[in-house]
Amino acid sequence: MKKNQTLYSHIVSMIGVLDEIQSILPVSEVELRVLMVAITIHDLNKIQTNAEKSYLSIISEQNKKGEYANILRECEVLNIEDFFPKYKEYIEDIRAIIGQHSAHTSSFAENLICNPERYKLGEEKIEILISIIRALDILDLSKTMDEEEKKRQFLNNINNATKHKGKQYKIVHHIITEDRGMLTNICHNTIAIFFKEKGFIPIAYYKEGVIYLVEDKKIVFSKEDRERLIERCSHSIKSKIFNDFKIYIKNVQSGIKVDKKCLQIASIECIIYEIKNRCQKSKRPDIKKKNNSIQVVIDKYIGIYSSEGLEDIKEVVESLKIKITTEKDKKALSNLNKLLKENTLLLKAQRVSKYILERKENETYLIDSNEDKLRFSEFIRSFYTFINMYLVSKDTVLTWNKVYDFFEINEIDREYLDIFEGLYIRPYILGQMIYDDYKMKDEELTNKIIRYLEDNISREEDEIEDSMWNDLKDYLNNNIIISFYNNNVFKKQNILSSYGNKKGSKCCLCSSEYETKSWMAVDVPYKLKIQNFSNKINAGVSEPKRNVCSICNIEYLLHKVTYTSNMEVSRRYLSILPRGFNTRAYIRAFRESISEFKNKDISSLYFNEYNTFIQQANKNIQDIEPLFTKAKVNGIAIPNYSETLTNYFILPIHLVKKDNETSKWISTLLYALTFNIYFDSKVVISEFPVPILNQDEMEEIYVGDVPVIFKNIFEKSWTKEECVSTTKLFVNLFTMAKTMGEKSDIVYDSLKALSKGRTNFIHCIYKKLKTKYDNPNFKIKEINNFIDEILSYVKEGEEIVSSIKKLAIFANENYIRGSINGGFIKDNAINKPLNIIIDILCRWDKNLYTKEDITALCKREIQKYFERVDPYYGKKKIEAVEGYVDLFMEKILDDSLDGKLYSLENEKKNILSTYSYYYRLAMIKSNKNGSEI
After folding, report:
1. Which residues form a coiled coil (predicted)?
2. β partners of residue 701
């Protein structure tokens, strides 16, 4: 087993490899089941109850019936009978296999283990099965792609088994030298399928690549085969991006808008039909509001018209036009042109006003609420928006002229339409005007629009698209390394050289050698990160435009189609890294689980951290299981394409956007802790869609930079022990919260307090209890065990809390507290003697009084108080008060606070809350109910 690996995942890994290689093994169905039972129980010495025993004694221990007790017990616990009903008939065989599963078994031990005459399968078959289990066991210890010795031992054992079928095998591999997360995973998946079709057996999916078993003979793999492989990888990516162009078409308040990237992956025909479909389903506009706006404009123009005025202006315009043709003086000509422009506008206003009066008779200037007309008008508006974005560079006047020309709108109608707002009103008025002309020509109009756009939109996009996919093929050819194909050798210095020598703009995300395009800053997915070679600093941070290469463009498109979201989210990426490798069976099982959610139309799984940790109270932390609920956005996003989950699993986490960054960090920590234990994997969570650390560069989890407020408690290397103890911390925090009737908020608040020390934490919790309950004693009793466990997580404040606790117990035992005037005891009564001491110490002038003077003064002031309020005041109380003050001065002031009065003053509220908490706890334990009888 690998370091920190659980027995369960070790067995799952072995079974996964066996599932792949079983077709080449000389074993029958029964023999395979015997072997699987042996694999399942082979590490009996790793079970807690057998921890102190030798392996030989574990598998040899017999019950009164002469049966191997530990072997049978484990088989019964695991319900082996359901899988293999006749397993008891093969116990000797199973015992022999597990007894020799380790290659380190001595010959002396072998003789003690083996009883060949009692084998049901026969000695030769047992030898074969022993070779197989040894192979599987040793391969799981091969933690990295480049480890060789354990793979060699695996191969030797496999060949020892397969020689009985007359075949021998060798190990080959492929790697991809640069990790781009989902894009790289899809390529790994495609390559593995490609080689499997050629008879290769993929046995281990490492983060960097896949190792295969293949028959030990010459492999025929030509240049054409490699080209086909590259083409397959490119097609796998391209098909997913092209499959869902619709995510680049957005319904927004200003209409239906098409992202420019959509033009790279879909035809104009597909885009227009999608727009048309959305127009039919879009939200119905507020007709009343639009008609009110129209009425305001109509009222403005309706009083302008007069027949005499119209004729006068016509004459003036004609006169000005004649004068302009004959005028030679430049200044006079300029004045004439200015006058002509002004009078032309007046003439236009007169004509529009007259036109409005004519339409007013039938009120045809208002928008009809007819559903079909509204949908048609929305389609016209989308057509206008499309032209404005991609044909005329957002020139609204020119755009509308093109729309008018397309629909053959006459001059007076154009002048009338131009008086209305161009985006929210005018398209609806135009739609009303021409609806009757096209209502029976719907398909004809659609095709006309498609042809018009195809003819007018620059075909530059096609060239860019072809270049982009050619770059991808070149990128894949440079980065896919196949162990038995020697024409392509990756050298990092070559990559560095091409980076340094490239002329012109480099990609702001990866600094690759490929040609770049300028993107506006808001469009750049700045969180993309590439491993293993990339610029660690984002280039061009202050620029309004960024240079993005075609490979990063493809990667961004792939993200968009894999994880669709209609709203902006706060996103992190969860990378689940195998301790060594994944198997194809494990990958398949993980994908099927994800697909189940997808099939139920679940786009996101919300991680219910509250219930997850509460259910773990009083249970083994290693059994923690994350609980999820269906969500629309927040939580783990479900991918549209499961092929993105291959050599390692990377999933976006959508956090609650309104939460502050500190709360988000705690949420990511909870994800990491839970998934680390549940999947028995290493976990990286960051803002980047690739893990920024490899497995050998970290302990168990990585969750980014710890917020300053939590550095005292969470600045760790995150070993297995630290992960388990932190998980226990959260189990206690959440269970405490539930016991107090609180939700997750108190967990975050109390964590901030805990990071400042134990007294701060107790103050935080005690303050909440006092707010909710008149008598918090019963709740203190319920949560005390959780408090103790939580406090044990931090060392800071351990001494002072212990001293305050002793002082509180002493005070309770000796009734050193203030008077009670009926009802439950109040904090001012509990803290009365302590307040007297603190107040005196805070006023202590060390130039006038010695410590002995102040100690005597504290004793005297408390004694004077009890003389007034305690009718039984006497020698016993005097002695108790003296002991109480001495205990405070020695343990709290001197030992815990180093005699620093300013520390006492700063910690006053925390000390008083901690003292009250432990005083009440002492009351409960001594059966004092805290009320006056």
Report:
1. 138-165
2. 683
**pLDDT at res. 528:** 66
Evaluate if residue 543 carries a pLDDT over 70.
Answer: no
Question: Do 863 and 910 fall into the same domain?
Answer: yes
Q: Given phi > 0 = left and psi -120 to 50 = alpha, else beta, which region is 66?
A: left
Q: How many CB atoms lie within 10 A of CB 712?
A: 15
Considering just the CA atoms, what is the radius of gyration of the chain in Å? 40
Together in a domain, 711 and 760: no
Local confidence band at 534 (pLDDT 50, 70, 90 cut-offs): very low
User: Are 824 and 775 within 8 A, CB to CB?
Assistant: yes
CA distances from 161 to 26, 149, 156, 213, 493 (A): 7, 19, 9, 14, 43
Contacts of 83 (CB under 8 A, 6+ apart): 33, 36, 37
Q: Is 739 contained in some domain?
A: no
Do residues 714 and 760 both lie within one domain? no
**Is residue 475 assigned to a domain?**
no
Residue 148 has pLDDT above 90, yes or no: yes
pLDDT tens readout for residues 50-99: 777 887 888 888 888 888 888 998 899 999 999 999 999 999 999 999 98
Q: Extract long-range pairs of 316-321: CB within 8 Å, 24+ residues apart.
A: 316/343, 317/343, 317/344, 317/347
> Coil, strand, or helix at residue 633?
coil
pLDDT at 770 over 50: yes
Confidence at residue 503, expressed as pLDDT on a 0 to 100 scale: 58
Determine whether 189 is exposed, middle or buried from the number of CB atoms within 10 Å of its CB (0-12, 13-18, 19+).
buried
**Domain of 817, in residue numbers:** 756-925
Which letter does DSSP use for residue 285 in this model?
P
Average of per-residue pLDDT across 623-637 = 88
Buried-exposed string 721-750: b where 16+ CB fall within 10 A, e elsewhere: ebbbebbbbbbbbbbbbbebebebebbebb
Report if residue 177 sits inside a domain: no
Local confidence band at 303 (pLDDT 50, 70, 90 cut-offs)? confident
- DSSP letter for each residue of 418-480: HTS-TTTTHHHHHHHHHHHHHTT-HHHHHHHHHHHHHHHS-THHHHHHHHHHHHHHHHHHHHE
d(CA 637, CA 652): 6
Say how many CA atoms lie within 13 Å of 365 toward its Cβ: 25
Using alpha carbons, list the distances in angstroms from residue 374 to 279, 287, 368, 369, 708: 9, 9, 8, 7, 56
Q: Which residue reads 């997913």 in tokens?
A: 240
SS3 66: coil
User: Which helix (H) or strand (E) element contains residue 647?
Assistant: none
pLDDT in tens, 920-930: 999 998 875 54
* Burial group, residue 413, by CB count within 10 angstroms (0-12, 13-18, 19+): middle
Q: Is the pLDDT reported for residue 357 higher than 70?
A: yes
Verify that 630 and 779 share a domain, yes or no.
no
Structure confidence by residue, pLDDT tens digits, 875-893: 899 999 999 999 999 999 9
How many whole angstroms separate alpha carbon 405 and alpha carbon 401?
6
